[in-house]
Amino acid sequence: MSIARLKIKGKDLTPQKAIKNPLLGSKNVLTNSRWEFVALWLKKEKKDSALFYWNQANEFYKSSVGVNIYTAPLLHYYCFMNATKALLTSKNIIFNHYHGVKHSGISSSRFTLQNEGIEIKSNGILPSLSTYFNETETSTVHSLQEIFFNLQFIHRTYCLSYPRQTDMFIPVKNVFFYYNLSTNEVRLYCELSEDFSNRNILKRLPSTFIFDRKEKERYFIKSNGSTTISNPTKPSVSDINNLINFNEALRKDLVFINGSSTLWYIKSNVRGPAKIDRKSSTLTLGAMHRLSELCRYKPLEFRKFMDSDKNWLINEFIQQSSEQFLDEIASEITGYHFLIPNIRSAK
Question: InterPro entries, per this entry (predicted)?
Fold first, then answer.
């Protein structure tokens, strides 16, 4: 079987950050701040209400810089909430302006990640974000431990905090879409990262990915599903739509961490807390809501929370979530792929 990399507008097609309506073949947006780019984009598109929410989110973000860990969750949450409102409004989605999430947990004198959690309501901002992503998760109640376990950008910290936990997120590289030269069938192909390149990892793959081949000590996998396009060298509008839908299907178990390059991970099947079928944006918004409640209504208890043996994990979530969440939302609003500039010498 002969395959070749699929190109759109002369550019190798890779997984897209935007789950809905990514701009296939567009150039990456290199910026240290997504705020100005998204604001100008919303202004150009005449999305005035969305622009208002986005600018409001920016004000909360600026206020959060330099704030101590005991106050930051409150400002982060209102930043995230308004960024979400900007996304929903930019897509002309009508939503209830209530938070749509409440506290759920076990009554206990001890504040632990297992005891603290959230319940997602049927209406409001957070459930509207879940609906936007077409999430199929049936459970509406999640503990903070479950949420943190399902967030790729703090997963290494989670596994260090729970040393017996097996990594759920498998790093992959050389992630590209290829097409069959005979049938025009398109699949996603990638290689397991060196530290995860072994046969045992294959047993943990979700149903969306299967083993492809082994070359010496290198393991390659591919998407279980596929799509077909009519003309790989000049995709039609229908072809582009098929590829967008295929990318969305793959993103169920394919997630990224933002940076100067995009790091891709496969969400595998391992023992541990529940594997939640929700996007990291939804989970991040929900978890930050609960932490913001503790800051507002139970600040002394929150201080005790931060004195617990899992304080580094909580701290990393608070510190790392902004860049990841806002990168995800900015990509969804505009369809672009954002990267942090990495200055290097010309080759």
Answer: YaaC-like
Residue 315 CA, chain-centre distance (Å), reads 19
Helices 34-44 and 72-90 cross at an angle (nearest 10°) of 30
CA gap 253, 262 in Å, rounded:
16
pLDDT tens-digit series, residues 289-330: 999 999 999 999 899 889 889 999 999 999 999 999 999 999
Tens of pLDDT, residue by residue over 169-205, are 999 999 999 999 999 999 999 999 999 999 999 999 9
- Name residue 63's amino acid: S
Helix/strand/coil for 180: strand
Percent of the chain that is helix, strand, coil (3-state, to 5): 40, 20, 40
* 268 contacts 172 by C-beta, under 8 angstroms: no
Asked if 118 and 286 touch (Cβ cutoff 8 Å), the reply is yes
* 285 Cβ contact list (under 8 Å, min separation 6): 77, 80, 81, 84, 101, 125, 126, 129, 325
- How many angstroms separate the CA atoms of 280 and 151, rounded? 6
Three-point CA angle 220, 278, 139, nearest 5°: 125
Report d(CA 96, CA 48) in Å as an integer: 19
